[in-house]
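To whoever is on call:

I kicked off a structure prediction for a single chain this morning and the downstream step that reads the tokens threw a length-mismatch warning. I double-checked the sequence; it's 673 residues and nothing unusual in it as far as I can see. Pasting both halves so you can look.
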Amino acid sequence: MASSSAAARENAPADSVILADRFEIQPQLPLLDLAHAHASAFAAWDSDDPGLPVYALIIEHDLPVREQQLRTLKGTRKPALVQPLGWGPVDWPAAGGRRMAVILTRPAGRRLAEPGQVDLIAIPAKQLLSEFITPFAALLRDLGDMRVTHRNIRPDNLYSDLEKGGGWVLGECFSAPAAYAQSALHETVERAMAMREGRGHGTSADDYYAFGVTLALLAMGGSPLSSLTDDQVIAAKMEQGSYAAIIAGRRPPAELSEILHGLLCDDRDTRWGAQELDNWLLGGRQNPSPPPLESQAGRGFYIGGEEYKTIRTAALALDRNWDLAATLIKDDGLERWVRSCVKDTARADAIVSCRVSAGQNAPRMISDDLLVARTITVLDPNGPLRFRQFSAMPDGFGAALAATTQKPEIARLFLEMISGMLPAFRVGLEQNPKPSLLSLQDLGSMLRRHLNQRGPGYGVERCLYELNPNLQCLSPRVANYLATDIPTLLSAMDAEINNEEPPIDRHIAAFLAARLRDNVDRNLNEIAAASRPADIVLSHLRLLALAQEKVAAPPLPNLCAAFLAQMGPVIDDYGNIPLRKRVSQAAEKAVQQGKLAAFLAIIDNQANRQWDIGNGNRAGARFTKAKAEIKRLISANEHRHLDAEKLGHRWAASLGAIIAATAVAATIYSQMS
């Protein structure tokens, strides 16, 4: 295998790109029929299996790919689905940096429809049964057993090789967040209302719905809904029900009427799944009954000049007219309409309660935005959680938040929604919440806990990486490396180290905190509290040393050298000059190994620190004692000078007296003689 990989690299054209020493991607050979709006497709070659047709998708966005689905489906044998063979970042010259590449088996034949195509060629029911319904029913059953959702089922993601005797193949579902490329036509009403990035992984029920929509389009040659906007499609489904809206008064083939009714049921709990579809294929009659449509009020409620006669359509209109919504809610008109015209007293009472901040942990005040968000949630509890331009299903929070990284104003809305405890409010609407709702409450509590802490490693960045376990680190310092794991991140930091500023920014801190299994709160708090240059450098070094040691990352000589260059304040903290010199010399040697923990052990050696502190204390004590002795001696010397001066004065006086007496005596003696 190694020799074939080496040969592949040697024989590859000069402009080819190699992934994992196995796959050769050819940028000079684009495949337009396999490309998406968010991913380009290129010819590729697998050196381990040269006869297998494969192609490469080059991802052209910063959103998380569906890596869990890639891992689960890698190596499986499913003829009706393209298979993932490998993925990872590659240097892509056309992008001026790195891009994520996904290698897939190449489907034979052509697309059944072009992206955005409205009119299709109707396919006979008998052909659909043998070539589409039967094989894809088995595929959906297998995916459901594996707990994998596809979320990308539509005509322009189907490939047919019927001319050569092959079957139909369903295209990829890995290169973007779940349902990112779907139109509202192929999504359930609830998930279609969310922003594209926030539709969520969903369940098998969502795949069966998209399967039903695709079947209807293929059987009838399209649907009038295909030419409408997403909001128009959603409104039509709300008012008429999905089956009636998609069929649009036409008659589908009689032999497919039953299956279409079952798959296009808007009630997820009664929508057909694997068992019902298998029974139908075996000839059993299911007689699905469509769920009753939402009753219309006798008098509609006006929003923005338009009349709405159902609660769900009113909720959608409030969401689309957010600035007007607060006024309509505050003047009690909506509550009165729900109470008197819709005849739903319980929901009207719930609308009134939206204004109240109740409970010990409830938000301190209800802003206009939170009031509107709560009211919409009361009107349409099964829809996405909406907060102005941010809207997502709970299982789509991660990708939706990732989409806001370049839009700070949208990220702020997410923060306000979580701080306002909208997830907990949604759970509180149910007397007996299902486990999925209880998990939403736990999710909201976790996010709120991270958002309430302002230091590095917390905030919206921490939420981003906790919700997206496969998302690359979005720090501008390593953005071109697509670092989805800690070893890659540390290697990128080693390659792009900047000596002018500390190596850890908010994104890197949050990424490490979310990916490390150890509790690093202490390290994060240390970084937040550090103010002295020595403390700042050491706090960053300690966290990175822990990360390198825990994940067995490769040596980081450049990072070690950068830390050494910043160690002046740390080394200067040692008072003993010979020790300071020994530590500096040992640190320089450790840099060559590239092991941050070993480097830290030298720089921040506690035994050396204690010895230096103790030695400094002893030296300080000796200095204090010597200083006192010097002061005493100086003081004593000053006293001796005073005593000598006094003694001199006494001696001088005595001597003067003696001299004077002698002079007087001499004078008297001379006069007497």
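Update from on-call: the warning came from a stale cache, not from the record. Cleared it. Sanity check on the structure: Residues 111-281 form a domain with the Transferase(Phosphotransferase); domain 1 fold (CATH 1.10.510.10).
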